[in-house]
Amino acid sequence: xxxxxxxxxxxxxxxxxxxxxxxxxxxxxxxxxxxxxxxxxxxxxxxxxxxxxxxxxxxxxxxxxxxxxxxxxxxxxxxxxxxxxxxxxxxxxxxxxxxxxxxxxxxxxxxxxxxxxxxxxxxxxxxxxxxxxxxxxxxxxxxxxxxxxxxxxxxxxxxxxxxxxxxxxxxxxxxxxxxxxxxxxxxxxxxxxxxxxxxxxxxxxxxxxxxxxxxxxxxxxxxxxxxxxxxxxxxxxxxxxxxxxxxxxxxxxxxxxxxxxxxxxxxxxxxxxxxxxxxxxxxxxxxxxxxxxxxxxxxxxxxxxxxxxxxxxxxxxxxxxxxxxxxxxxxxxxxxxxxxxxxxxxxxxxxxxxxxxxxxxxxxxxxxxxxxxxxxxxxxxxxxxxxxxxxxxxxxxxxxxxxxxxxxxxxxxxxxxxxxxxxxxxxxxxxxxxxxxxxxxxxxxxxxxxxxxxxxxxxxxxxxxxxxxxxxxxxxxxxxxxxxxxxxx
Length: 489
Fold this sequence. Notes:
By secondary structure, the protein is an alpha/beta fold. 48% of the residues lie in helices and 11% in strands.
């Protein structure tokens, strides 16, 4: 009968384990120095080896030549534990045996010595699903079990284990397997199975596993069943529902070129091929994240799950953007992905989200906007920059000058001498609403857009003019210590 790759190549000793060196070293030393605990908690992502390590530990403790860090693998105890039918190593699925009655049976079973082996070992899988009452029934037994009993609790949700249980066990946190280690493992298995697979194909399969060895090997098994002895990248991507780098790079280039039409064409192409829009959005978020990491690292990094040639292409694309831009795009894409999970019209939301990315690419930073405002042709706009929003109703409307350079300021009005009649009445204050509209028109004509939030808590100089933002409510425009305008934001 055919045996799947994940089971066929399951590690049978600590030496074959990959990606969990801290667990391997601690347990090996504990066995060698006879410091084996009576309770362990193995937690971590699915498919990282928790149950496998529990079985290896059971073999090491019950091997006829043990306890030894390396089991012989040929004695009856090792063979039966590997097959899962040892009478002294009991594997319990807590997902279906989670009640207080099952825990009482375990408590009664603990009282009896092993039938043949050295230890009676209880491996409880999905331990976080045990009820609170059942944990309480097991509490005293887990704290002070007989010398021949070892409990191993395996879980993907360590925070669901009660503190009273966790404090009585040694806790090992299993990590996601590194991309390179996963690639090496699959490369070895492909050679053993006489499978022709390029580095790109293995990279796609490793990315599908997301750090889980079992998931990656299951995807490899599925690809072999579909494609035979020769695996092609396009076939594997289509089988696993993985998107190639090209459509993702197309989105990045459309953002860079501010091409909204190309975004809509991309969505139509996805819809025509019947591909999952939610999955595409998730892959796009991963792509923005990889671009951001490449931009920060400035060289191929282990933080990116991709081979070196692909990382070089990521670096080229990342150089088109700034770190601030990539951070903004990643945030918008994550929000879009969250929206798509509950959307009844995913195409509409995806189109809107991708167009928003294009619009976000048109935004200028406050430094760039202020630099533009400092140019002579932008001087009329600078004086109006203090009127971003209406003042609060409890304060009078602010007055802002219409110019920003000292040359364009009106001469100061001298106080009249006693008894003189002023020649003309003072100029009435300008309404903030008019200034806000003037500012909006001027910025639109200059092709600039920025938010008042972006310049809050900042202070910049524009030649003779200074734009001062008084946090959190007041914004003042001054020229050489002379206040010429004030507004509230």
